Amino acid sequence: MLFVKPPSSPFEPPSFLFHFVSSPLRCFVQHLHRLVLFLRGSALQTPDPSSSIRLTCVSDTHAKKAAIPDGDVLIHAGDLANQGTAAEIQDQIDWMASLPHPHKIMIAGNHDGFFDPRSRHQSDLYKTLDFKGIHYLQHSTVTLAFPRVGDRQLVFYGAPQIPACGGDDFAFQYPRGHDAWSDTIPRSIDVLITHTPPRHHLDLPHGMGCEFLLSEVWDVKPTVHVFGHVHAGYGQESVFWDEAQKAYERVCARERFGLFRDFLDLFAWLDAARVAYYGIIGVIWSQVWGGTGTGTLMINASLTYRTTVKLGNTTQTVDV
User: Fold this and answer.
1) Which residue, 29, 107, 119, 307, could crosslink 251 as a Cys pair with Cβ 3.0–4.6 Å?
2) Biggest alpha carbon distance in the chain?
3) 189-201 per-position pLDDT tens digit
4) Three-state SS for 149?
C-alpha cells in the first residue's frame, strides 16, 4: 500500500494507519470490542478475600530474570530460554525454585528446544533437568490443594504446541492450518496454560494465534487461560462466550479486503452491528442490573516487550 509501511516483523504490531487501510472494518470492530469489554468489566466473579488464590503469571523471559510479586501459584507459560539449551532452561528453573511461591508450574515454548527431541541440541542429547519441585506440564494436568484457604483445589492443564513460525530449531511446531487441539484439553480444568494464544485474543491483528485452540477453548471455558508467545499481545482480556464474541471473531477471521472493498461486505457489517448490539446488552447486564461475570479471563503474560530483548512488561497477577 502506497505510503503505508507494513510491520518490519510478523511479531511486530502494525501501525494504526496500516491496520486501518488494510481493513477499516476489522480495525473498527477490534477497537469497538475493546471499548465494550472495558465497560463490561471482569469476566470473573470477585472472589472472597478470605478464600482467594493468587496466580502469578509470567511468560517469555528468554533466559532473563525479573522481579516477581508474591502469590500462591507461579505460572510460566513457556519460552524460558532463548537458545533452548539445557543449561539455559536449568538456570531458569533454579531462578523459579528460589522464589517464595508455594506452588510453581511451567510449560515449554518454541524457544525451549530441549523439551522437543526434534529441536534438541546435539550437545544436550543425554542431559537431564532437575525440576526442583516445579510441576512441568506437557499435555498433562496437575491438581493443587491450598490448605491456607480450607479445602479449595485448582486443576491446571498445560500444553506447548504452536502454529509453525520458525525453523527446525523451534520446538513443538505444527503446520498452520493443522488441527493440533480438538478434544485434547480436559473439560474439568480451572486454569489452562498454553504457549500460543487463541487466535484474535491478546494476539496481533493478523492473527498469530491458533484458530483450533480458540475453538477448543470455546468448549472448555476455563476460569483462567494463561499464555504468551506473541509479546505484543501482552495484557488481560475478559471473554464472555456470547453472541458478541462470536460476531467479533467472525469479523477478525475474514479476509482483509482493503480500504474500499471492506465497505461492500454486508455480512461483515451485520456482524459489526451484532458486536455493538450484544455488547451493549452485556454492559447493561453488568453495570445496570448488577450481573456478575461468568466467562474466562485470558492473560498474555509475556514479559519481553514486543520484538526487543528487554523484559519491559510487568508480571501479572489474578485472584480466583
Assistant:
1) 29
2) 62
3) 999 999 999 999 9
4) helix
